[in-house]
């Protein structure tokens, strides 16, 4: 009887090991990107070829209704109380939040993605889209109090922090050499489709 129980247990153990191996393989798969940053290599029909910032060749499907926006530089002084902004921040040495970049939304984009969430631009970075409630000007930059529906955050923006805004764009901006950030989603066949693309104007790299 003992021998039969051991013999019966072996197939069960093998099945369990296969199941664990399959689960582990799925767990080790790289996460599907939601943003692709890089340089356009070509636009061929509905396929946008991009060299990502990490050096990978990425092909994105471009739908007919793709949203394209231009990104252009503005001045730190263009950030006003009442402006709706997005800012990538990282923790500062004093426990505050230092801006890596700030993008000022035009009025017709007010409310876009309002709130604060983790971001993938830099380690420990977060993205906050909010309204500027206060702005204190100092010798080395501005300190902004930004408020969103679930809270607020105090952000230091140095004089060297890139500040940009959105301008109207189109597929004609998707030229070889242009720097972009593409917001993407996976298709059923495993390929990626761009839902929105921001293109730097005049050689600018979108800083967000």
UniProtKB/TrEMBL annotation:
UniProt keywords, alphabetically: Signal
Signal peptide location: 1-27
Keyword Signal found: yes
UniProt protein name: DUF5666 domain-containing protein
Organism taxonomic ancestry: Bacteria, Pseudomonadati, Pseudomonadota, Alphaproteobacteria, Hyphomicrobiales
């Amino acid at each position: 009887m003992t021998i039969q129980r051991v013999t019966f247990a072996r197939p069960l153990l093998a099945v369990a090991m296969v199941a664990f191996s399959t689960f582990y393989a799925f767990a080790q798969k790289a996460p599907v990107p939601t943003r692709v940053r890089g340089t356009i290599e070509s636009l061929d029909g509905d396929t946008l070829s991009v060299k990502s910032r990490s050096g990978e060749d990425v092909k994105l499907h471009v739908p007919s209704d793709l949203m394209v926006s231009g990104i252009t530089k503005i001045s730190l002084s263009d950030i006003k109380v009442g402006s709706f902004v997005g800012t990538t921040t990282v923790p500062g040495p004093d426990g505050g939040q230092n801006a890596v970049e700030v993008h000022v939304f035009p009025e017709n984009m007010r409310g876009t993605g309002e709130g604060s969430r983790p971001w993938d631009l830099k380690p420990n970075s977060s993205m906050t889209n909010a309204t500027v409630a206060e702005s204190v000007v100092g010798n080395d930059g501005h300190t902004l109090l930004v408020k969103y529906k679930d809270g607020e955050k105090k952000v230091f923006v140095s004089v060297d922090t890139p500040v940009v805004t959105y301008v109207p764009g189109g597929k004609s901006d998707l030229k070889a050499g242009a720097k972009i950030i593409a917001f993407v989603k996976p298709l059923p066949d495993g390929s990626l489709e761009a839902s929105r693309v921001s293109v730097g104007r005049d050689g600018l790299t979108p800083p967000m």
